[in-house]
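Deliverable D5.2: sample structural annotation.
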Amino acid sequence: MPNIAASSFLDSTFRKIYPQDNDWREQAKKRLSELTMPFWALGDLMDLAVELAGITRSLKPPTARKQVVVMAGDHGVTAEKISPYPVEVTGQMLRNVVNGGAGINALAGQAGAGITLVDMGVRNDFPDLVASGALIVKKIGRGTDNILHGPAMSRTHAVMAVEAGIALANQLADSVDLFATGEIGIGNTTPSTAIAAVITGKPVAELTGRGSGLDNSGLAHKVEVIEAALARNTPDKNDALDVLAKVGGFELGGLAGLILGAAANRKPVVVDGFISTAAALLACKLEPFARDFIFCGHASAEPGHAAMCAFLGKKPLLQLNMRLGEGTGAVLAMNIVEAAAKVLGEVATFAEASVCTANLA
């Protein structure tokens, strides 16, 4: 079992996370089976509606108030040239989101989702963005340490990162029906791959992708760096806080906390691609019942994502060969989640529509 004694706040959060409500799931199944269409004609969409009923304890699951939480952090391992982009790009991309020019801006706008942008551990400060209200600062440190040479952070900082994410979920919960996760951070596929390797037990080479565009030699070097970092730090796969501290990132801890906080508030959360799913692995190792509140938004083009989703027992809602991050796949999938809620709450049953079913047997 993970050592949670370090934080009574974490412990109290775990105690609020329960499985989906089976009575509401059964009510949803009954209603869906009686809708004015052939039995289960909308397939996976109806399965999704059952999940929403179990999460929200409602046959009209609320989904209108959508929010994607984008967490940013830098990574010391970028010193090993595991990304074709310099570390400064993290801060530049953060400003691009604020200016409305990022992929997440376009797709969140299409989905009707707001954006909460959080500095969990970027090297630079952004006082102007903070003053304008565009950026929330929960900075644990100015980037993690280089995992090739030692732990990414202390265990205390790992706890602080998770707690920060939980606190933000608690802060937003009263005004959000449906959460999504997103991230910004040059080099963050490297710690995410390390986390995936530890928790799934799959070989690093099988999980490692090209991230933001590595060539073949760069990919091989990235595999070597991750394998060396794991050998150096020996994270305990049964202790999610140890994994986060040894090879993770501040934004990954924050996202894990956000997922836990959403679950504690009985709010569904759509998890984005590769990096966000690494955070979901951490969250579910900390509290396995958090899994009941997670939807995997899309299947990332990163090769390790399938193994991560399989470990969680989740089927991605979309298959679009995406690998941008930022929460883009998650907000696209919010449309599907909202559609499932509409089917459950708005489509009439045969009885309600006065449709005769005598000859349907």
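Annotation notes: The chain has one domain: 66-339. Residues 66-339 form a domain with the Rossmann fold fold (CATH 3.40.50.10210).
The annotation will be released with the project's public dataset once the embargo ends.
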